[in-house]
Amino acid sequence: MQRVFISFDYDNDSDLKNALVGQARYPNSPFQIADWSVKEPLSGNWQAQVAERMKRTSVVAVMCGYRTHTARGVAEEVRIAQRLGKPYFLLAGRSQGNNTKPTTAAPRDKMYRWTWDNLVALLAGNR
Fold first, then answer.
1. Is 110 exposed, middle or buried (0-12, 13-18, 19+ CB in 10 A)?
2. What would the pLDDT profile of 47-70 be if each residue is shown by its tens digit?
3. What is the DSSP string of 36-76?
4. Crossing angle, helix 46-55 and helix 72-84, to 10 degrees?
């Protein structure tokens, strides 16, 4: 069972996070969500707090919406995952397209269509 840290734009994409949390509740789900989402800024060195939380997960799912490229928190969470050597993947959250990558995503990072089959494959490390 994979434990997933969700990175998302809190101001614009909370619905995407909620949908992924819902998928984790499926009886055949191969993952569980480590949901530490907070609206208020974390006090002190929040990056260190996020890193400690991220260390307790297997993988980071980055939910990409229309304005992800402007979400500084998402960019920093991707940077933390990269620094920790934590695997991560980008999911296109909006089916209408025009999803954007975080500014710190590597050029080689592919954004995957958000389907159950893709999600299961990504969590199994098959993409």
1. exposed
2. 888 899 999 999 999 999 999 999
3. ---SSPPSS-HHHHHHHHHHTSSEEEEEE-TTGGG-HHHHH
4. 50
> Residue 112 is encoded by which pair of tokens?
């995957």
Amino acid at 124: A
Angle at 38 between CA 75 and CA 44, to 5 degrees: 75
Neighbour-count burial of 21, counting CB atoms closer than 10 A to its CB (0-12 exposed, 13-18 middle, 19+ buried) = middle
Q: How many Cα atoms are found within 13 Å in the side-chain-facing hemisphere of 3?
A: 10
Strand order in the sheet with 59-64: 31-34, 2-7, 59-64, 88-92, 111-113
Tell me how long the chain is: 127
Share of the chain above pLDDT 70, in %: 91
